[in-house]
Amino acid sequence: MTERSKKIRWWAAGDVSAFFGLMLDNVTNLVLLAGILIGTYGFPADIIATRMIPGTALGVLVGDLVYTWLAVRLARRTGRSDVTAMPLGLDTPSTIGMAFAVIGPTYVASGSGETAWQVGCATLVIMGVVKVILSFCGGWIRRVVPDAGLLGSLGGVGIALLAFLPLVEIFRLPVVGMVSLGIILYTLVARIKLPARLPGAFAAILAGTAVYYAMGGAGLLGEAFRTPEVHAGLSPALPTLAWLRGMPMAVAYLPIAVPFGLLTIVGGINVTQSARLAGDDYRTRDILLTEAVATLVAGVFGGVAQSTPYIGHPAYKAMGGRAGYTLATGLFIGIGGMLGMVSAIVDLIPVAAIVPILVFVGLEIVSQSYRATPGSHAPAVTLAFLPSVGYLVLIYFDQFAGFLAASKLALPADLGQTYSIMQVLGHGFIVTAMIWGGAAAYLLDRKLARAGAFLLAASVLSLFGVIHSVMPHGEMYLPWRCGSTVPVTISAAYALTAALLAAVHRASRP
User: Is residue 231 part of a domain?
Assistant: First the structure.
């Protein structure tokens, strides 16, 4: 061992707070998965607890172990002791999407939880294969897309999905949620230390949970209070051929699996750039290939939710995390998922006490989007936020439209048209944000040819539904088989804009 490697500290006090943040992010996604399947579709809870969660947790374990090793390797190579491991966990959009668009509908159609689980595993394996292929393109994409596109797309996710959506859950139980959020703001945003140096994330969840049970025991929460039913038991993650048996039906979900895989690859590129700007220079391909392999492992072992590098690297670095927090998270989620511990925690902690952590991560990402890009690119960063806002609106539109459909009612004509527009704006929102932010950044730098290339790329991608899909769940398609002229219209709009800018620029030159 060299003198340099002896001085490396891969574990620090900040890893404790970072561990609680990352661990609870993963637990929150498992809460969402189980809640949607059981609450919406009446899915068998035992299949979720004994098959889905163990396999899914194993994928997280594999990914976090590799990210821990990558951080230690980077620290030894650079001689730095402040290297923060890339956080990895379950991807929220695709976890929700798998529940609503794949597993739930398959269960309704087949009436079999076993069949729905098999199709979920197969769809996850497809995502993993797609991600392995795309991971070799990550470095090239990072070199071509300006920081305003990469970080602006992340900032949009931060402000719309990570900062705003949790506020809904906080105000479902405002006393519980605001107590937890207040401690998060005090410790992690203002960076004021608590007595006895308690970790901020842990203290926030502990306080929110204590308030929840105190108010619930006093009868102040009414029907919002639920007595936990803790079930724990050994459910090891074992290799299974369930994914192979579900593959014939999963092929129908290929248009859903490919965009979900692309979504996390693009996100992985963005977060690698975010980590690089924060001081940790990871190789993009290593990060992307790890998340792809972790997703494949989860699918082969019965999991149904893909792993992805989280966009909160700067937040975990601000907490003082090093490499220890990913190791602890991987072991806790992986082993705990097989022992039933994760299921018990999911049942014990109220959602309102957990989600303020997501608010903090969102704030950090939005702040970095502006700090780490040139000041002249601020309009491009802001423009890149907008597709995520469209996706946020679409989430609530979908819920409203689903309620009306279940009641055999239709949206009014004007509202139906707005709904269709929100679908077009929201589908493929991360890729759209990268293109808009990148094109605007190149325009601001007077690089018209590159800006035009971005607009032409948007023209091609929108034609096939990679962005601005007109299908209900954002599926891709061949333009002549989608039953709508909207893709051709949007594609022509992008192409015409590119041509117009080129013509104006040429005419204005001396």
Answer: no
* Mean pLDDT across 357-374: 85
The average pLDDT across 135-146 equals 78
- 225 torsion bin: left (phi>0), alpha (psi -120 to 50), beta (else): beta
Structural domains of the chain, count: 2
The verdict on pTM exceeding 0.90 is no
pLDDT tens string 15-37:
888 898 888 788 878 877 877 78
Residue 49 counted as domain residue: yes
Q: What are phi and psi of 240, to 5 degrees?
A: -140, 155
Nearest-angstrom CA–CA distance, 51 and 57: 10
Q: Which of 295, 241, 245, 285 is nearest to 129 (CA)?
A: 295
Interatomic CA distance for residues 437 and 133, integer angstroms: 25
Alpha-carbon gap, residue 349 to 115, rounded angstroms: 31
Name residues whose C-beta falls within 8 Å of residue 110's C-beta, 6 or more positions apart in sequence. 116
Place of tokens 């705003």: 164
Q: Inform me whether the pLDDT recorded for 4 exceeds 50.
A: no
The answer to whether the CB of 493 falls within 8 A of the CB of 461 is no
Same domain, 323 and 389: no
Q: Can you tell me the distance from the alpha carbon of 323 to that of 336, in angstroms, rounded to the nearest whole number?
A: 20
The share of the chain scoring above pLDDT 90, in percent, equals: 41
Instruction: Please give the Cα distance from 271 to 278 (Å, whole number).
Output: 10
Query: What is residue 242's three-state secondary structure?
Result: helix
> Which two three-digit tokens encode residue 448?
């018209």
234 found inside a domain: no
Residue 3 has what pLDDT?
Answer: 43
Residue span of the structural domain in which 434 resides: 375-505
Domain membership of residue 233 (yes or no) is no
pLDDT tens-digit series, residues 316-364:
888 888 999 999 999 999 998 888 777 777 678 787 888 888 788 788 8
CA distance 117 to 121: 6
For residues 385 and 430, the answer to whether their CB atoms sit within 8 Å is: no
Distance CA(236)–CA(341), nearest Å, equals 12
Outline where 185-199 has alpha helix (H). none
Q: What is the mean pLDDT of residues 203-220?
A: 92
